[in-house]
Amino acid sequence: MLEWSLASPRTGRLPGSTDILPLRGPPGGNRPAGTSGSLPGLSLVTKPAGTGRYRTPRRGAQAARRSETVGPTVTGQRWPMAARCAPGNCSARGGQTGYAAGVTDGDAVDWRGLNRANWDDRVPVHLASELYDLEGFRAGADSLRPFEAAEVGDVTGKLLVHLQCHVGLDTLSWARNGALVSGLDFSEPAIEAARSLAADLAIDASFVVADVYDAVTALGGRRFDVVYTGTGALVWLPDMPRWAGVVAGLLEPGGFLYLVEGHPFAQILDDAQGANIVRDYFDDRPWVEDYPYTYTDGPALKHTRSVEFQHRLGQIVTALADAGLRIDFLNEHDFDAFQRFESLERHGGQYRFPAGRPRVPMMFSLRATRPA
């Protein structure tokens, strides 16, 4: 039986530098063909409880204290409680408060401003968290997954830029693997933390505060051998074609993008078993989430609202191809880095379905080259 609910963040395209998402139009309103700019027909809708972006899979210790929370009724429907969970803690199911954007927010939401304030708040929480384990990283731990280094290959002496780098752990891990690294993020506190960590560890790295859509200018027109983007980054960006154009503009001829992301198909499955389709893969509306915690252990955030955009796999690949990049490979992985579904079992650093269960893709990795 297929179960359906409004629970998946979907994309809305914002050409140019438009930061405001208008909320007029009926739920599910589609952009008329040929429209651009402010998207007058776009509808921003509520993010159901706990269905956060892929980069925020763990609710950590906070989930247990919120296990009794029930999502509010919005337009006659109860949001499902589907909070992601920390490994070994999937029995603690809780949800954040949701609301129907456009009812509460009036005519528009500043998606970039909300997201930046939310991520600024996360920085000190993440730096102090067990999940980020700065002590282990300072001692030499590598934050990259083994398959990432294997798929990218030797980066010794290569110029690598990490887009949406947050506090820079993955960026500095690539430096430890021999790359000459730069990181870019829109959060000034995150970049300050990354710079401080690099200085403390005597790792040569440069970090820039800028919106990803402004990366070409912010990085001074430099070209790179590798553009890297890690899990959970694209869900914060409304416009895939524009993003792909930025990537192409950062690459040297012969250079490549390496992207690792959560698989969009896994996002539409139920959180318990990962066996039922409960969300609409083609619902292309942005979603607003009002959630007081980040995905690690730690205190509540001051700025709790964020706006997310989910993108179909075909949209991502097509955007890169349209930007002139050649797709070298697209690998789909039957494991995840966290316990996305309660039914997953841990095998080393990976989470998989039990033996004998039909498998679905939970992550994908992609390399796309700018032709020489």
Structure commentary:
The protein is α/β, with parallel strands linked by helices. The chain has one domain (20-369): 3-Layer(aba) Sandwich (Rossmann fold). 21% of the residues lie in helices and 20% in strands. The chain has nine helices and 16 strands. The chain has helices at 62-65, 111-127, 134-138, 146-152, 169-176, 188-200, 215-218, 240-250, 313-322, and strands at 20-22, 45-46, 73-74, 77-78, 108-110, 159-163, 180-185, 205-209, 224-229, 251-262, 287-290, 305-308, 326-333, 345-347, 350-352, 363-369. A seven-stranded mixed beta sheet has the order 8-7-6-9-10-16-13, with helices on both faces. A three-stranded mixed beta sheet has the order 2-11-12. The chain has a two-stranded antiparallel sheet with strand order 1-5. Helix 8 packs across helix 9. The N and C termini lie far apart (50 Å). Residues 1-20, 22-43 and 46-107 have low confidence and may be disordered.
Contiguous uncertain segments of 5+ residues: 1-20, 22-43, 46-107
Please provide the ordered H/E string of secondary-structure elements: EEHEEEHHHEHEHEHEHEEEHEEEE
Q: What distance lies between the first and last C-alpha atoms, to the nearest angstrom?
A: 50 Å
Mean pLDDT, all residues: 77
User: How many H/I helical runs?
Assistant: 9
Number of strands: 16
Which architecture per CATH? 3-Layer(aba) Sandwich
CATH superfamily: Vaccinia Virus protein VP39
- Gross morphology is globular
How would you name the oligomeric state of the polypeptide chains in this document?
Answer: single chain
Number of domains: 1
| Percent range for β-strand residues | 15-25%
The level 1 CATH classification is Alpha Beta
